[in-house]
Each structure stands twice: as C-alpha cells, then as structure tokens.
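Quick one:
INPUT:
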C-alpha cells in the first residue's frame, strides 16, 4: 500500500526537463519523501511534461487518465513542466484529480507548494510566467547519471520562433552567474563526475549577470576545472553563435568535438517566416568556422519539415543544405501547430501525408550521408567513455568525444566501469554507430 510520502516521477521532453527533474527529486527527498519505481507504489505521482509537439502533450493526458482510477487509494497527482505552464488551471478541469500544477519558472517555490499539498490543499499552482528573474538552483540535486553531470547555465527563451512554445512555457531568458556555474562544476568534479554538460534552450545566448565571462569564456573555464575530462553544451542558437566558441574548442582539449546547431530549414524564406533571424548563408558561414577548427568537429542539427507555406522548392533547399553540411546526426520533425504561437495563425497548408513524405526523404538521404561519415572512422583509435553493456550483443557501449555511439569488445575478465575511459580501435561502421575493440 502506498504511503503518503512516497513519490514516483516521470520525465518527458528535453534534457532541460530531465535535469529539472533531478532538482525536483532532490527537493522532494530533502522534504522527507522517498522515491519509488512505479506509479502503483507511490502516494504522489508527478509528471514533468513536454509540450513541444502535440503528440508529446497528448501522452501526458493519456497517462493521467489511466492512473486516475487509483485516486481512491489516496494518491495525489502533480503536473509539472511545459504542459503545466501552458495549460495552467485548465488542467484541473481536464483532470480534476490533479492537485498541483507548476511550470519550471516556479520550482523555487516547491517546498512551500509541497507543504500546502501535505496540508490537504487540492488546487495548488505555480504559474509564474515571463515576469520571473529567478533561476532554480538547489544544492540537493539528485543526479540520476553517475558520471555525466548536467548544469543549467541559462533558463527560458526570448527568441519567440514562430512555431515554438518554449518562450511561453519556460519564461524569459535568465542566466546564472558564471561564478555559481563554476562553483557547481568544481563541486561535482570533486564528487567524481568527469563529464559536464552545460544546458540551456540557447546556451550561447548566455549573459553573465556579473559581467565576468562570455559564454565562450565560461565554456573554457569549465573545461579547465580539475578532474573534468569532457564538456558538452546544448543547445546553441545560430543567431548567437560566435567565433570564439570555436576558438575555445581549439584551445581547451576537454571541450568535446561536437556542436549541435539547429538550422530548422535550408530556405531563407521559410527561416524568415519562422522568425529565426538568420539566413541559410549566415548559418553556413558559422558552419564554415566550425569546419575550419583544428580538430574535426562533429555537427548535428534539428529540422522542421512542413512549416506553413513550405513549398517543394523550400524543401529542396533544406535537402541542399544537409548536402553541404554533411551532418553526423539530424533530428527531423514534422511541423506541429502549437497553442499561443504566431505560426498557429498561418494556414497549416502542408497535408500530413506530404509532411510524412518530406520527413522520410530527408531522413533517408541523411542516413546515406551518415553512412559515409561514419565509414571514415574505420581503423581509427579513439577514446570512449563507457556507458554500460550493450543490451543484446555482450559488448560494451560508450560514446566518443564527437558523441557517436561506439560498441566494443573487451578481452580482460573485468569489464570497464561506466564512466571510465577506454581507447578503442574501430573495426566496423554503421550509419548510426561504430564497432570496435579495446586496445
Ligand atoms: N532552443 C532550441 C530548440 C528547442 S526545441 C533551438 O532553438 O534550436 C527542440 C526542437 O524541436 C527544435 O529545434 C525544433 O526543431 C523542434 N520543434 C520546436 N517546435 C516545434 C513544432 N511546433 N513543431 C515541430 N517541431 C518543433
Ligand atoms: Fe523555441 Fe526558438 Fe527559443 Fe529554440 S530559440 S526554444 S526554437 S523559441
Ligand atoms: Fe519540451 Fe519544454 Fe523541453 S516543451 S522540449 S520539455 S523545454
């Protein structure tokens, strides 16, 4: 039987959400709760939600509808994250058994909201929106990954791309001081985390409230923290991508050889409609800087197909762009009209079947590009961070600095521990992964 101070938390959406959950879990543990592994065992069920596309949002409501049958057991429900902020009190109408609705900009008030929940209140909201200047920092972060430590450096977004909910769900852009970011990096490096990932909707829009460091300087400083072996950062916005970021990667060996730079479309006309504030030429200029770096830097991107009014010619321009860039990874999405966004007032003119076709054409070609890119690693020896066992093949799974998955064999009796680094020689390649043997 579920006791009241047990909780189950599940996260949907991006890494920002995953890391917010680590902080929320830490806060709950600090308030005397204990975490359980299933909804059945929990007194309090929390969903940290995503509303980036319609499908993501629907999943949460399906889940809530399924478990509402257990509310007579005294279970309580909380909806956190982007759907919470977007739908607000409407969630209480759609799912009346929910007691707490809070967006990420209100998490600093969680201890107070939990106290009200325990006191029996059933309509608790934390819906601070774009007014807040606060960032959510806690020393109690319950890190779920034993070797990769996430650090949020900037929250919210002020870009207002025409299709995107994030500026409405995560509030206005606000950066942490570089001193507090560095203090957290030192603290977790001392605890044994060797890989640090800096997080933000747009990490490179970072502005130090103390005025001490630019994003590139902060990146370099984190890379120089003792014990730190790898530093990653997501997501970069092309508009704010400056050359000194490439210089920092060149200068500091711990900064990983990978930049995720979402382009969204190869057509400057569509980019203007999307309010991305750059053209494809401007984007390609940044790509040229990255390609001119001293070490080969792996590139990945996000692309939306079927944005309102995207013509066959616009789509061909996107195909031309992936040909020019030769990405190692593309996350492709069909446009999904979202509440409150300006694009919702444009006519969603591309039929679903056409969106499906364009996405398939894009991903098929990208697979061939990747096949070629990955094949070039054959025979190379690279350093791999071990992540665990490959589920089926008895191999060890890990990642290269370029973030490529590498599965490898190991001839010693004791397998290397997750989080350790191993040199691996690549013996076979696939479009999405590399195969090798430890040397
Ligand atoms: N801040 C990042 C992206 C965050 S959202 C950036 O600006 O690049 C992650 C990705 O989801 C976006 O890059 C975009 O490709 C996709 N996305 C966002 N809104 C979408 C929508 N309404 N429909 C389809 N895909 C969307
Ligand atoms: Fe969304 Fe654009 Fe902000 Fe990225 S930059 S989170 S796509 S509004
Ligand atoms: Fe989703 Fe919110 Fe992240 S909408 S992608 S969880 S910022």
């Amino acid at each position: 039987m579920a006791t009241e101070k047990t909780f189950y938390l599940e996260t949907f959406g991006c890494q920002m959400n995953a890391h917010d959950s680590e902080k929320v879990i830490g806060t709950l543990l600090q308030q005397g709760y204990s975490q359980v592994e299933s909804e059945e065992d929990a007194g309090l069920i929390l969903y940290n939600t995503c509303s980036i596309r319609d499908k993501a949002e629907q999943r949460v409501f399906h889940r809530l509808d399924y478990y509402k049958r257990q509310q007579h057991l005294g279970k309580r429900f909380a909806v956190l994250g982007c759907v919470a902020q977007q739908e607000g009190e409407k969630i209480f109408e759609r799912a009346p058994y929910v007691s707490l609705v809070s967006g990420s900009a209100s998490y600093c008030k969680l201890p107070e909201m939990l106290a009200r929940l325990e006191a029996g209140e059933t309509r608790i909201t934390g819906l601070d929106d774009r007014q807040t200047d606060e960032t959510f920092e806690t020393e109690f972060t319950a890190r779920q990954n034993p070797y990769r430590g996430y650090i949020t450096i900037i929250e919210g977004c002020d870009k207002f791309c025409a299709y995107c909910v994030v500026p409405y769900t995560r509030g206005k852009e606000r950066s942490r001081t570089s001193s507090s970011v560095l203090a957290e990096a030192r603290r977790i490096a001392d605890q044994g985390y060797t890989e640090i990932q800096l997080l933000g909707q747009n990490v490179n829009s970072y502005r130090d409230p103390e005025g001490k460091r630019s994003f590139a300087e902060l990146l370099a400083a984190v890379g120089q923290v003792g014990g730190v072996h790898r530093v990653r950062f997501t997501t970069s916005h092309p508009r704010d991508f400056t050359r000194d970021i490439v210089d920092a990667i060149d200068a500091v060996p711990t900064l990983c050889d990978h930049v995720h730079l979402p382009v969204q479309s190869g057509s400057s006309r569509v980019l203007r409609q999307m309010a991305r504030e750059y053209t494809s030429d401007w984007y390609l200029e940044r790509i040229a800087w990255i390609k001119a770096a001293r070490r080969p830097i792996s590139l990945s991107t996000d692309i939306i197909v079927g944005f309102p009014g995207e013509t066959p010619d616009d789509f061909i321009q996107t195909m031309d762009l992936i040909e020019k860039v030769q990405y190692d990874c593309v996350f492709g999405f069909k446009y999904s009209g979202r509440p409150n966004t300006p694009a919702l007032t444009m006519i969603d003119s591309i039929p679903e079947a056409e969106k499906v076709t364009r996405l398939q054409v894009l991903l098929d070609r990208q697979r061939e590009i990747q096949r070629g890119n990955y094949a070039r690693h054959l025979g190379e020896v690279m350093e791999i961070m071990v992540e665990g066992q490959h589920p089926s093949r008895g191999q060890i799974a890990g990642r290269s600095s370029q973030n490529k998955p590498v599965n490898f064999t190991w001839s010693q009796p004791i397998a290397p521990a997750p989080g350790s680094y191993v040199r691996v020689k690549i013996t076979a390649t696939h479009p999405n992964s590399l195969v090798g043997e430890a040397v």
